[in-house]
Each structure stands twice: as structure tokens, then as C-alpha cells.
Amino acid sequence: MMGMWCPAEDDPAEEPIHFLAGKLHWINTDKLIQFILNCQDKDDGGIADRPGNVSDIFHTFFGICGLSMLGYFDSCEDKARFAAIKKIHPVFAIPDADIARLGLTAQIL
């Protein structure tokens, strides 16, 4: 199964991201948000790779990035609670404001 995600050595256009480009409509954002929220460790903090597993910094970071890119923090009723969480750039995985401040550019498919 993993072979389908491995790019052809001589064809960078076959990388996994190219298979997903333009397919955002395939994702049920509400269910993805709920999955990420279900992966939270409500006792010790952080986000795990799946519900019930131990959280780690990698999944916590990308879980927060995912929630940001899905608009979760913008759509919450209690926006003041999440005021410190800034919108994350999908390419650089740092706040959008820092992208502008640093003058970084990226092509987003």
C-alpha cells in the first residue's frame, strides 16, 4: 500500500502532494477537526496521533497547525480563549504574520 505514496524516482510530479492538490473538497473538515480534538490528552495536555494514545510534541504541533488551517480557532464561539493562537502558514508552519514580516514567499498548489 505504501508504494502508491512513493514518488517515481525521475518524476517529482508524482509526489503525494500532487495527488492531493485540488482535492480539499475530499476532506470533511468537521470530522477532521473532531478527530484532532478527540486526540487531545485532557489530563496531561498535548495531542496524540490517535485517540487514547500518548501525546507528543510532533502531533501537538501539527494538530494545532491543522486546527488553525481548518479555521477552528476562527470559528469558535469563545474566540478570546484562543486569541494567542495565530493563523499558521501551511508551507512554513509558522504564523502568517511572521511570513509577512520575514518577506517569505511560497507557491501553494
UniProtKB/TrEMBL annotation:
Cofactor(s) the record lists: Zn(2+)
Keyword Ubl conjugation: no
InterPro entries associated with the record: PGGT1B-like, Prenyltrans, Terpenoid_cyclase/PrenylTrfase
Keyword check for Metal-binding: yes
Domain Prenyltransferase alpha-alpha toroid residues, every copy: 22-94
GO CC annotations, alphabetized: Rab-protein geranylgeranyltransferase complex
Molecular-function annotations in GO: metal ion binding; Rab geranylgeranyltransferase activity
Keywords, ordered alphabetically: Metal-binding, Prenyltransferase, Repeat, Transferase, Zinc
UniProt family annotation: Belongs to the protein prenyltransferase subunit beta family.
PANTHER family (UniProt xref): GERANYLGERANYL TRANSFERASE TYPE BETA SUBUNIT (PTHR11774), GERANYLGERANYL TRANSFERASE TYPE-2 SUBUNIT BETA (PTHR11774:SF11)
Name of the protein in its database record: Geranylgeranyl transferase type II subunit beta
